[in-house]
Amino acid sequence: MSKLYCGLDLHSSTTYIGIMNEKYEKVFKKRVQNELPLILERLKPFKKYLQGIAVESTYNWYWLVDALQSAGYKVHLANPAAMERLYDGCKFQDDKYSSFRLAESLVLGNLRTGYIYPKEERPIRDLFRKRLFLVNKRTSHILSLKSLIDRTTGIRIKSEDLIKFKHEDFQNLLKDEYFLMRAMADFRCIEVLSSQIKSIEKQVRQKCILKEPFHYLLTVAGIGNILAMTIMLEVGTLSRFRTAGDFSSYARCVPARKESAGKKKGEGNRKNGNKYLSWAYAEAGYHARINYEPVKKYYQRKLSKTNEAVASRALACKLAKASFFVMRDQVVFDMNKLFR
């Protein structure tokens, strides 16, 4: 038997297996339930001929990729966001087509792959992602509470002051019992979420330390311990990025834009990248511009020529590229080189 290539179209309850040879001839096709023994049983007759298995990076890929690697298969994690163009213009598409398209991309050598994050480090990264989820939830409750106080009393309160309030403070501000009840519902959620966020941060700090070269991130303007840890956990291995442009693109800091003859013809793939890194560098940019005068001046120059969103993203991109060079070359961040 000749060399074989396999594509697995993974879904929530089933997986479609498609295997072809190097002449693009279909050798095997079958839909199976998402039960590991069934999948391994179907692959076993072809194991010594399989050159690789492509698994689409769906929300539930961990268990399947880990098991296939443990069983000795060479696994590629297909990046669906980067592969959209392969399916553009198709009149018909189903699970069978998708699985064989993955296998065909392996044969051609043009499969766009994602990074298979090390199994041992994955739980701590996912825990830190949960922290960000909780932070966003807490922010929504804080904004809801600020909005309530603002429209019922005309008083504007800073977020950092609001989270220090006590029950008596709300009673003094809100005289209506129903407004007070609503405010306390938000405030109790904020307290619970803050407690969980602190607990996660404590646990991660105990189990995870900044490794080389990521500890150099602490010298970059706007990046503290939490953001440095977020970047380290999301990047994994810096060597997978060839250039600073690749790194900033992965952090979603570059424009997603299509042009022809100098005119905009549409939007690119905005989802191709890491949304957690995107958030981290947006936060770094915010903290840098309010704490460092050279950064503030750069941001103001950009803002005078464009809008706030573009200026913020330009600053985030600059910090992302600086982070790449700082980590790659293992040098201390130099403000004067970046913001002249």
Strand order of the largest sheet: 3-2-1-4-5
Shape: globular
Instruction: Specify the helix fraction band.
Output: 40-55%
Number of domains: 3
The chain-level mean pLDDT equals 90
Domain Transposase IS116/IS110/IS902 C-terminal: 216-300
InterPro entries: Transp_IS110-like_N, Transpos_IS110, Transposase_20
Domain Transposase IS110-like N-terminal: 6-152
GO biological process, one term: DNA transposition
Please give the structural blueprint.
Layout lengths: L3 E7 L3 E8 L4 E8 L2 H8 L6 E7 L5 H9 L4 E4 L5 H4 L7 H14 L13 H32 L5 H4 L4 H7 L3 H31 L17 H11 L8 H7 L6 E4 L2 E5 L7 H17 L1 H13 L2 H22 L5 H4 L2
Helix pairs in contact: 5-8, 9-11, 10-13, 11-12, 11-13, 12-13
Task: Describe it.
The protein has helices spanning 36-43, 62-70, 84-87, 95-108, 122-153, 159-162, 167-173, 177-207, 225-235, 244-250, 275-291, 293-305, 308-329, 335-338; strands spanning 4-10, 14-21, 26-33, 50-56, 75-78, 257-260, 263-267. By secondary structure, the chain is α/β, with parallel strands linked by helices. The model has no long low-confidence stretch (mean pLDDT 90). 54% of the residues lie in helices and 13% in strands. The N and C termini lie far apart (63 Å). It folds into three domains: 4-108, Nucleotidyltransferase, domain 5; 122-207; 214-338, no CATH class. A five-stranded mixed beta sheet has the order 3-2-1-4-5. A two-stranded antiparallel ribbon has the order 6-7.
